[in-house]
Every structure is written in C-alpha cells, then in structure tokens.
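Q: I'm writing up a methods section and want to include an example of the input and output format. Could you take the sequence below and give the corresponding predicted structure tokens, formatted cleanly so I can copy it straight into the document?
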Amino acid sequence: MSLFLTLFIVAATSSICKGQPKNTCKVVPKNEYIEVGSDTEIVCQTSCIPGKIYWTLNKRRIDKSQSSNSSHAVLSLRNFTLQNATLQCLNADTLQALGGTIIRTYSKPNNISCILHHTNQFQDFSPDLFTCNWEHRIKPSPDINYTVLIASLSHDSQQEICKSNVTNCTTTSEKISIFDNMTVTVRAKAAAWQAESDPHEFCPDHILKIIPPKLTVKTSSDHMLVSVVARSRAAFLKQCHCEVKYSKVVDEGPVSEWVHNNTLKNGHGNETIEEFDSCNNYTFSVRCALVEGPWSDWSEKKTVLTKLNKRDFKLRLWRKVAEPEENGLRKVHAMWTEIPSTCRGTFTYTVKQTLYEENLMEVNDTDILCGSSTCVVYVNQDAHRVQLTVLHNGALLVVDSVYVPAEGESLPPVTDIQTSTLEGDILVSWKASMAPVTGYMIDWTHGGNQYHWKESRYTHTTLSGLLDKQPYNITVTPLFDDKTGHGTHALQICTRVGDPGNVMIQVQSKDKSALVSWNVSSQGPCSGAVVTYTVFYRIQREPQLNVTVNSTEQFISLKDLIPDTQYSVHVSATALTGTTQSRETLFRTKRFDPELVTVVSVCGSIVILLVLSLGLCCAVRWKKFKEKPVPNPGLSSLALWPALSHQEGTCPFQPFSNPTESLCDRVYTGETQQASTSPLAPGCDDNPACVQTEYIDPAAFSAPEDPVKPVKTQHPSSPEDSTALLPSENSPYRSQTSVESFASRSIKQCKRVPVKQTEKMTPVIVYVTLDMLEQQ
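A: Here is the clean output for your methods example:
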C-alpha cells in the first residue's frame, strides 16, 4: 500500500511539474535501507514551486517547516528506529505532494551464544558438535542468509563454518579448535543490505555442555539418600555443581517439585532428603554443569517408593461416643489415620480399654484385634481411656490413647455452634468452653459410615473436600490437658442445596380445556424447596404460553384451548437454588365436549331401548294374533267322510273355534250335534296333543234326490264369528249331503278305543281340511 501511495505521489508530482523539465520536484534517495539507530538525510527538490514546504512521516506532519530559499530542502533523521516509514514532501500553500520515499531499517544479529556438546548423552567422548544461537530483530525469512564466522588463535582469519536461514546453526567440532578461545561473528545478508554482528569471544570450558550424571536413590524410614556420580571426564578434573529435582507422584492435580543444589567433589556427591510422605512414589532426576558452563540435560527419571516415616507418622487417634444403651453400656467408635496400603510389611492393630481414675488407671489385659483404621469397644458409665497399639512386622511401631469421659462428668462443652456453606465448603464456628482448653476437635461424617476429623486451636474452622449436595453431621469437642470433653452436635447441613426434585406430569384433556397435574420426587435430602411452578404450553410453531402457581398447588386447568388440536406441555419447578424441568408431554384436545358426548350417548341408549321394547311388544301381539287361525270357507274342498270302521287314526288338524277345547274336538253341523249321542273316544280326549280327523265315507250314503246348490259364503272377520256360523241354518255346509255310508278314521299318535254305534243314522256332515288354513 505504501509503495502504491508513493508511486501515486510521484506520478502526481510529475503531472504538476510537467512542462518544466528543468524545474522538477522530487525526493531522494528512493527506497533506502538503513541500520536501526543510525542517521540519514532526505532531500526534497523544490525547483518547481516557490514558497515553503513541509514533511509528513507515515501521514503525520513533522513539527517544523522549512523554507525553499534554495532549490532543495533537507530533512535530517537522527537515531532512526522505525522498521519502515513513508516520508512525503508537500507544498505548504497548496498542500500538494511534491514527492516521497520509503525508508526501511535492518538490524545486525546479536545475543550470540554457542555450546560444545555431545551426540551420545551416555558415553563421555570429546564434544563432537558445535551449535550457535542468536537473535535478529528482523523476522527470519528465506530472503535472509546467515553465515557463522569463527576465528581462533590457530586461525587468525575468519572462516565460514555454518550457513542457515534461521537463527541457529549446528556444525561438527572438527572445523574448530576446542582447546583455544574462539571469536564468533554472525553475518546476515539480504538482497538490499548486509549486516554483521559484533564479535563474541568464547572459552571452551565456558561453553562445554557435559553429559548427564548417573543417579541412585536409597530409602529408609526417616530419610532418602540421593547419590550423583559424574560420567564426564571434565567433571572429574574441574569443579562441578548439580541440581536434584524430585516430586511426589499423584493420580490427579498439580505436581509439586523440589530442587536441591549439590556440589560434586571428584565427580561424586550425595544429597539427603528428610521431608517426604510415607509410602508414596517419588520421581528423581539430576543435571550438572561446570562452574561457568551450561547445564547438562536432565538425567532419566527414577521412581522410588518411600518407607514408613516413624518420626513424622501420627495416628491422630480419636473416638465417637454414642448414647448409653438399655444395658447401660456406651458404644465407642475409635478411629485413627490409616497407614497407606502401599506401605510394605505386616501391620497389627490392637485396642485396650482402661478404667480411668484420677492418678490411677486399672489395666484391662484384654486386647481387641482391630481393622486398619477403625475399631468398636463398649464401656460403662465410668471414665475410660482407649489405647491403640500398632505393630509393624511384629515390632512396636507406635502407641496412642484417647480419653472417654464419664457420663455426666463436669467438663463444660462448647455452645452456640453456627454452620454455613461457601462454594462447597462448610464454615463452622462456636463459642469457647468456659474452662481453659488446649484446643478443639471437629469431626464430621456423611451417612455415619466414614468419619473425618481435624484439630483446631481457634473457635472456627473450614471443612473442605466434601461431597457436593450431601448432608453432613458435625460435632465439636473441647480438649483439655489429658482429657477430652463432651461433644456438641451441630444441626445437619448440606454442602450445597441442589435443584428441586424430578417433576412428573399427567394431562387430562377436554375439547377446550386440559387438567395438568404433577408431583415432585425428591432427589435427596439436599434438594431445593420449590417456590413456584410454571406450566408452559403451546401449539407447534406457535408462541409459548405459561401459567405460574405457588408451591402449594399441584394441578392447574388450562382454559380456552382449541378443539381437536395437539399441544405440548411441560412444568418447571423453581427453587431459590435452581430450576428443574419435566419432560415435554404431547396431548390432543377432544373434538367435542366429553360430557356432552356422554349425555347424548345415554339419551340415545334410552331411546333405542324404548324403541326395541315397543317393537318387541308389537311383535308379541302380532304373533298372538297370527296364532288364532280363521278358516276361509271359500278355500275349502268337499270330500266324503270315511266309514265308521275306519275311525281309528290321528286327528290332523287343530281346533280353530275355541282355544279351550281339546285338540281332538270334531266339527259337526247342527243336525249332527243333535242326532249324535256317542262321544269321542276317551283315549283321544285324554291326550291334548292328539289330532283327530273325522272322515265320512261317501259310499255309506246314497246321493240326495234334490241336491242343494252351494251358496257363496263370506269370510268371517274373527274366530268368534266363524264359530257362530257353524250352527246357522243358512250355512252352505248344511246343504251338502253325502250318499256315502258314515265312517270315521282317526289318525293320531295315541291309540283310540272304538265306540260302538247303537243305531244307524244318516247325518248331513261337513268337514274342514288343513288346506283352508294354509291358503288363508
């Protein structure tokens, strides 16, 4: 951009001064490179204009004006340090640019450092590599070539030993003399400039980097011994110093490192370390250097397991005393610092309870074998002392004891325990005991399975490293000279109150409303108390609506919903510590009001039942009407009755005149009823299921001399009418005569006793056939 601007200015200046070849305006020199911190002068030729000019540096006006009394103006720049700058010469009257130039700076390499070192870091030979590093203010690029020049007493003239495009260079030591002082110069060369660093003189002993030493570590119960042995011949011949670095191995979290300085004598040195944790892994590494030489590389890390430190190990024995049981005994839960499982060897723990009296202790020889960190014993209401003994591989390691006060013993406890939480920690404070104390023991537990305890000389403490959102029980006990007082319990407190419990919802929908109910299942004793419930509901791709109720409500009715529409709903429970949201539930409103559908269904069912009942009654009445046959005389046919000798048989038709009569009642005309004196066979009368047909044989009678022509008959309108016409004198059946002899034949399922005919008569008989009923 600056180059383009410069070309534009030069072109503009040329156009202004066009036509004046002798009186031109320009700035010289063009695109100059100068060394950082040097001086330079810029000349502006002003032959083309009269009056004054002024200069700008990177578009900023320089606070001095120069008169163009002569044909040019000179700008002097002293101690110029900018990496690049654009200078312009402008007419003070017209503000026209007369010319411009760009000045760039370069620097020479500096801060040169060189070392003699080894390719093999495990075997000591003569150093075979020579490496130099330097700094350059200009950003290295492929356009800049660096050359390392060296001169020594054996070579007065400089010789090139290494070339590079970066700010370091390595070569073999064959090109230099490792026994003489040497002078090193670095040359930087670009297309437009070249710069050489100031010469630096080096002594071989000051730049010799020795190989790492050998390291051994021995552990004991109270210290660790670190031994360093040099592997470089120079370290044996000259004074050498070393640094021992070690750190504790942890699974997670930051690693703390410690460094101890040590001086080797004749290539050997020892370092004793006494501050360490028992039965933990530690890593060690070491490096050495000649007095004025560079540090060697760190040796390989060595890991060792420390032993149990008897001097620093403390059991920190403590006890928890429960309330007396029904038998008067008190349960004492003894606990102590657990020895790390990484400690090698066999550890045995025994507890002995001793009845305590002032200046006298009655010893109980019974020892209780315990676990690695806890033990339970029972004591009565008297004062006792519980003693713990720890053996390591059968040898006594440590002995400690703790006091258990008698029930009701006058040892004033602490009062007014206050607890609060801060970022997961519990802050505990209390009022001091009335009696002089040596300190306070604070113990806390989550769930009562595992206890933690700490001692404090103050009336306040902070409990850290606690489980999140869990309740803790805390007890503060005053400590006296050789006794422990009665503990005071604080109210249970949560490290942090969590969000409300899980919210479960149910939805019962109607056409224009929905009943949303919910319940909250607690996530634990530290769940937050719900302050408000908010019900969110909406149609898909529509704005969300919400209704808020207080914590006492467990349901709400959503009104003014759209029928037959799908909604989504969820409930949010809000506490002072957070919010819990239920899962989103989908429901669809009814097309019609369910209550209206129920009423319509009930009414419709009642109407259907009434219609069915009415239809059934009509059907029963119709059936009864159809079961009363009415004979149609117009459909009857004339036949002769069989002879009396054929009266045995069955009655093939049902009575139709009177339903109360027997199934075997016969049909007679009036004359027949008057003349006949013989009744029906008793065998047929006794069986109502029997059907008998009376048949008159035509051959038993002679044809009448004057037959009567048949007369039209009318169908009776009812069964009663038809029975009333039988004895009528005008009946067409009465005019019918038969020349056949009288005989009857009975067709029935039961046998019939024939009746003897006392006299011979010639009746006029009519009959009815079943065809009349079928055709009616």
